[in-house]
Specification:
Elements (H helix, E strand, L loop, with lengths): L30 E4 L7 E4 L5 E4 L25 E4 L1 H15 L12 H11 L9 H15 L2 H4 L12 H5 L7 E6 L5 H18 L9 E6 L2 H6 L12 H4 L8 H4 L3 E6 L10 E2 L2 E2 H4 L3 E7 L7 E7 L2 H12 L8 E7 L14 H4 L3 H24 L6 E9 L19 E5 L1 H6 L16 H9 L6 H17 L5 H12 L1
Parallel strand pairs: 5-13, 5-14, 6-7, 6-12, 12-13
Antiparallel strand pairs: 1-2, 3-4, 8-9, 10-11
Length: 495
């Protein structure tokens, strides 16, 4: 049996985990909870293998309970466990590269700038230590770009994101994507900062090395996240994440500011309808690219209208002016897709009408967002820096890099370019996220009656609130959480 899966003696007892935290957040996990359906969880030596649970959905519905579906207190169909073979292989190779196991030199092939950054990130005397999940995700990307050949030998070619035949006929090309699967709360923003700094500083040090770029674009789902990500702008100096999280040495900050980090939500990547030319409507002079727009599709009042949108070249010029400062000089871009499960290329799988039902609007929203997002990246890859430049590579960050409803792909399957994985169960075992608990079922209503007596109206508002809080704390401490059953469910949801 592999070392990472050495099993301790299987205990018998209730299906619950009283103390789920068994690893340090700063080191490689040494233990994991082995969870089997219908069996008590038990500690197993080594790190959990990267895997996910795939279940063939009866319908593509999300947020609506299917007929006969058990609730959280009943048995859950967690699906079939399937390995992420590429991730498991890369974990072994990255660990060997880190230790110099093959060539005798740690991080063999890495540039002097990269070695300096790795030493800073891994230093145990830092004021704010970085989590192992963050360091490993960044190390994996660095490994794929810089590692010496002996460490990369035998690693299969990672699938690229291929446009369809129509898009290729328009000059669009495939580009490389690497997905880092990280549970919410493990610090994806910090990983973006680490990799942005690594790319910019290496490009400044070696301007002719096309493995690196000093032009960085971060695409995110909404305006709220966009505003939060502004701390990744090097122009903010000591207020940026690069200094508040000690990602870059102080003497490198001036070099970092020579790069450019653009941040946009996906809506900024949409083409705009052309306005007027010399006072006349675009419809009259027919400027821009014509697009047939269908309104109320499939209904009796369906209408079709020709609208004119800006050309690809005009779109790219506008995006560059709106988002960029012009500091970045690289002929190709490094792109981060934050919450990357929204950024997928539409597949050709036919979805049964009955599968959508009430979730049709959600599926249409997902499809529109993904289409605008991916088409924007396609245009950047086509136009940035000339014919053979474009996107250097994309880094996808998401807790759930799986195809979602309305994608035209097999719902629940992972993106084929996932290269690292630190999932929800790993995060729970390392103490990085709150431990979820399931409440006890109370069919009698006695608990609610007892609570009402404790906070009867005669008491003051402040007193009632304090009593209510004490009541819930007492009840929670007196009832053991159903950790095992919940972790079965989380294993299916998070992979």
């Amino acid at each position: 049996m592999p070392e990472a899966e050495q099993e301790t003696q299987r205990p018998s007892g209730p299906l619950e985990v009283e103390s789920p935290i068994i690893n340090s957040p700063f080191y490689t996990p040494r233990l994991h909870w082995r969870i089997r359906k219908g069996e008590p969880p038990y500690k197993s030596e080594g790190r959990r293998h990267a895997n996910y649970y795939f279940r063939v959905p009866e319908h593509a519905e999300r947020g609506h309970r299917r007929r006969g579906e058990p609730d959280l207190f009943g048995a859950a169909d967690v699906g079939q466990e399937e390995a992420l073979a590429l991730v498991n292989l890369l974990r072994q190779r990255v660990a060997a590269w880190r230790q110099g196991a093959i060539t005798g030199r740690a991080y063999d092939g890495a540039s002097p700038v990269t070695l300096e950054l790795l030493a800073l990130w891994c230093c145990e005397d830092r004021m704010q230590r970085l989590f192992f999940a963050q360091v490993e995700a960044a190390e994996t990307i660095l490994f794929l770009i810089e590692a010496a050949e002996p460490y990369r030998k035998g690693i299969p070619k990672i699938p690229t994101d291929e446009p369809d035949a129509d898009a290729k006929a328009q000059g669009f090309r495939a580009f490389t994507r690497y997905a880092c699967k990280m549970a919410t709360g493990t610090g994806k923003t910090t990983v973006m900062g680490m990799l942005a700094a690594w790319s910019i500083l290496n490009r400044v040090a070696t301007p002719t090395d096309n493995r690196f770029s000093d032009t960085v674009l971060i695409v995110c789902p909404n305006v709220t996240i966009r505003e939060r990500l502004q701390e990744l702008d090097p122009a903010r100096g000591d207020l940026s994440l690069y200094r508040t999280r000690q990602l870059v040495p102080p003497h490198r900050m001036e070099e970092l500011r020579r790069g450019e980090v653009m941040i946009a939500n996906w809506r900024r990547l949409a083409k705009q309808e052309t306005g007027t030319v010399n006072g006349q409507s675009a419809k009259v002079v027919k400027t821009g690219e014509p697009v047939e727009v269908v309104k109320n599709a499939g209904k009796k009042n369906e209408t079709r209208e020709i609208k004119y949108f800006e050309s690809d070249a005009a779109w790219f010029k506008r995006i560059r002016q709106e988002l960029g400062s012009g500091r970045g000089r690289a002929p190709h871009w490094l792109v981060f897709n934050d919450e990357a499960h929204h950024a997928y290329r539409r597949g050709d799988r036919i979805t049964d009408e009955s599968d959508l039902e009430e979730d049709r609007n959600l599926a249409e929203k997902n499809a529109r967002e993904a289409t605008i997002w991916i088409e924007g990246l396609d245009r950047i890859n086509k136009l940035a820096g000339g014919r053979k430049k474009g996107i250097c590579f994309c880094v996808d960050l998401s807790a759930t890099p799986f195809y979602i409803q309305g994608s035209g792909n097999e719902v629940g399957r992972p993106f084929p370019w996932i290269v690292s994985d630190f999932g929800l169960l790993d995060a729970i075992e390392s103490g990085l996220v709150k431990i979820p608990q399931l409440p006890s079922r109370d069919a009698t209503g006695a608990a609610a009656r007892c609570m009402w007596i404790s906070i009867r109206p005669s008491r003051s508002t402040r007193s009632r609130s304090a009593t209510r809080a004490r009541w819930w704390r007492t009840r929670a401490s007196g009832s053991r959480a159903r950790h095992s059953r919940l972790m079965h469910i989380l294993a299916w949801r998070a992979g």
